[in-house]
Write a structure and sequence with these properties.
alpha/beta; about 20% strand; six-stranded parallel β-sheet; seven-stranded parallel β-sheet; 15 helices; Rossmann fold
Length: about 375
């Protein structure tokens, strides 16, 4: 008999990594053993529903609540409880602290025994108010024992949970995020052609938010084009910092060299047109965009931060830098521009690293073992 899993994420107000991650889990879980339901509370209810349904998710497996309900905590918890009961859910798996509260309590009230938590980024965000942080800490005292296991994507997040006394050490499992590997991409020969003709194509994929620190990438554009006048930069994604970044490009007078593409339908097609992938974040869990770039053998220059340095081995499959140091950041990008053979070598090693450790199949296998314990 199939077990029914509800994946719950209540913090989604913009498109980005979490909804893509849950979408991949939905399609990758063993259909003979599990029936998967996706539950969201979102400010973009209708847009999210459209994207999810168009990706092949069945309507009966999708439940999106308008996020006005988050201001009324108890009605939202009650809605979730009723949904879990109506769908005869066996396993509830919540994603991040806010979902822990709403989904965890609802699962408890619905009498569900198997409840799991998942963290793919740090709990305490810079944008959080002191009141919200204290609120989360107090509530966590009451809900932490609801969860059989808490799954995290990096050892850094595990350390944070333990140090903050959010979870007991023995209840935390590290499971790296996996990406879906399209078979047709494995058969292609990827080359960093722009580097060989001194027309480097440099880009990033991210939600345009403060913690992504994309202004650090914009700040090095003048340095790069001074050495490589035909270089081009592409920013794929969107978010609250977009206007600021567009204005910064104008201030630096580099509009002719920078393109903002917004979100795109096929990430891999865009990555094929990039030679060097940049990741400038101040904090990360295990970023999907980085793994996707590595899969396509792109040369990578990334922030030397916890989570990322569990994926990138410096000068083996990419370069790790302090992206806050614009001169050094630019210097490492220029190194790749002027050393295409070394850049290609890093790309080959990056590709191997992803296939060995970061596929969605490996993630799903690890989750299924945890669910069956």
């Amino acid at each position: 008999m199939k077990r029914r899993i509800a994946y719950v994420y209540t913090g989604l107000n913009e498109l980005g990594g979490p909804n893509n991650h849950l979408k991949k889990l939905y399609h990758a879980m063993d259909k003979e053993r599990y029936e998967v339901f996706l539950v969201f509370c979102s400010a973009i209810k209708y847009e999210l529903e459209s994207i999810m349904l168009s990706s092949g998710i069945k309507e009966e497996h999708l439940f999106v609540i308008q996020n006005i309900h988050k201001k009324r905590i108890f009605p939202l918890i009650w809605k979730l409880k009723k949904y879990f009961q109506e769908k005869n859910i066996d396993i509830v798996h919540t994603f991040h602290i806010q979902s822990d509260i709403f989904g965890g309590i609802a699962a408890k009230l619905a009498g569900i025994k198997k409840v799991y938590a998942f963290f793919e980024s740090k709990i305490i965000q810079e944008s959080m108010s002191v009141v919200k942080i204290v609120f989360y800490k107090i509530l966590n005292v009451f809900i932490r024992n609801i969860f059989r296991k808490t799954i995290v994507v990096s050892n850094e997040i595990k350390k944070e949970l333990i140090n903050m006394n959010f979870r007991n050490k023995g209840s935390i499992e590290v499971v790296h995020v996996g990406i879906d590997v399209p078979k047709d991409h494995l058969e292609r020969k990827y080359e960093l052609s722009g580097l060989y003709i001194k027309v480097p194509r440099i880009g990033t994929i991210a939600r345009f938010s403060k913690e992504k620190a994309l202004d650090r990438i914009v700040s090095i554009v003048p340095r790069i084009i001074n050495e490589y006048p035909k270089a081009r930069f592409v920013f794929i994604g969107d978010g609250p910092e977009r206007k600021y970044l567009e204005n910064l490009v104008k201030v630096l007078k580099v509009e002719a060299y920078v393109e903002f593409k917004g979100w795109v339908d096929n990430i891999y097609e865009e990555l094929e047109d990039i030679d060097i992938f940049l990741l400038s974040s101040q904090r990360e869990g295990c970023p999907n965009a980085l793994l996707e770039a590595m899969l396509l053998k792109r040369a990578v220059v990334a922030s030397n931060i916890e989570g990322v340095n569990e994926v990138i081995d410096h000068r083996v499959n990419g370069l790790l830098v302090n992206t806050g140091d614009a001169d050094f950041f630019a210097k490492e990008v220029l190194f790749l521009c002027s050393n295409p053979e070394k850049a290609a070598q890093y790309g080959e090693e990056a590709y191997k690293r992803v296939l060995e450790n970061f596929t969605i199949e490996k993630e799903v296998k690890a989750l299924e073992i945890i669910y069956s314990e």
